[in-house]
Amino acid sequence: MTHRLVYNDSTHSYTLNGKRCKSVTAVAKIVPDSYALEQWRKRQVAIGMTLEPRLAERVAVDLDNRETVDRVCEDAMQVAGAHHAANRGTQRHRASELADLGGKLLTEQQRADAAAWQRTLDAYGIEILPEFVEGFAIWPEYGVVGRFDRIARYRGRHVIVDLKSGENAVKYPQGTAVQLALYANAPLISAGIDVAGDRSTVTDWTTPPADLDLEHGYVVLLGDGMDVGQLWRIKIGHGWRGAQLGLGVVQWRKEYRYGAELSSQETSTTPTPDLIDLINRAGDEPELDGIWRTYASAWTPEHSTAAQQRLAAIAAGAL
To answer: Considering the entire predicted model, what is its pTM?
Structure first.
């Protein structure tokens, strides 16, 4: 089967064979304990709200609007600088890509980032392979897609290399290990990418290199103020165990129409009383209305006729 992948860079969304896909990074977040990260996010929101009190006023005027409150929380994290490492990471990724593929570096910052990247490659003897720069990996069976940074040559064999700007990637590396393991064990990777604006399309696929290291991947940690990055070895053999759990959860979530069919209401075991008898013993109109509301599912035209007759009798005083 020919697989058609469309990636939108502005929304970071993937579509494989016409269906929205889950990203490798999303799968990598399923397995690790996210408690520490969630606590950090809460602190960033609190810091941002403190630094910019007007954010609290935006919430106050639209307190019941969840979308507004969510946007304010994101803005608060932006004020607190929570996204700085991610934003700089995106910039460094682009500069390193331009450098590896011979593109034009337009700004002083891009040139500085590219130079730091090259110094790191030289320091550790990492050989960049242009055909494996910013490629795509797919798991068609699971509807999972990801974009790997590099498959490079290191110490005589092919390895997965990922550029990170934040130390959490190596300080809390479980998610990183799962992410890199998914790239390394993917059944198919892109053999050519058609780029038009912020959209990338892939229809040509190949298998990963036969000698790709499945036990260890590598993270280049290159943050602000670092002239040369640090190279961290990640045990992706262990990460693969977590990746399999994550893929299993993805499949599990799809079952029973994504859980919509997991619950069903049981029918009452209480026998329906003789409604005609109840209707004929009703003392007033509100009591008749209550009988109808209680037993609406069992109500028939016969019951409606009996209720009308009882109402007439009540009105005539024939109780």
So the answer is: 0.74
